[in-house]
Amino acid sequence: MTTTTRPQQRPDCAHFSSGPCAKRPGWSPEALAKAFLGRSHRAKEGKARLKLAIDKTKALLGLPADYICAIVPASDTGAFELAMWSMLGARGVDALAWESFGEGWVTDMTKQLKLSDIRVIKAPYGELPDLSTVDFSRDVLFTSNGTTSGVRVPDYNWIPANRAGLTFADATSAAFAQPIDWSKIDVLTFSWQKVLGSEAAHGMLVLSPRAVERLETYSPPWPLPKIFRLTKGGKLNKAIFEGETINTPSMLALEDYLDALAWADRVGGRSGLMARADANAKALYDWVERTPWIASLAVEPKTRSNTSVCLKFTDPAIAALPLEAQAAFAKSVSGLLEKEGVAMDAGYYRDAPPGLRIWTGSTVETRDVELLVPWIEWAYAEARASLAKAA
Question: Is 214 exposed, middle or buried (0-12, 13-18, 19+ CB in 10 A)?
Answer without folding.
Answer: buried
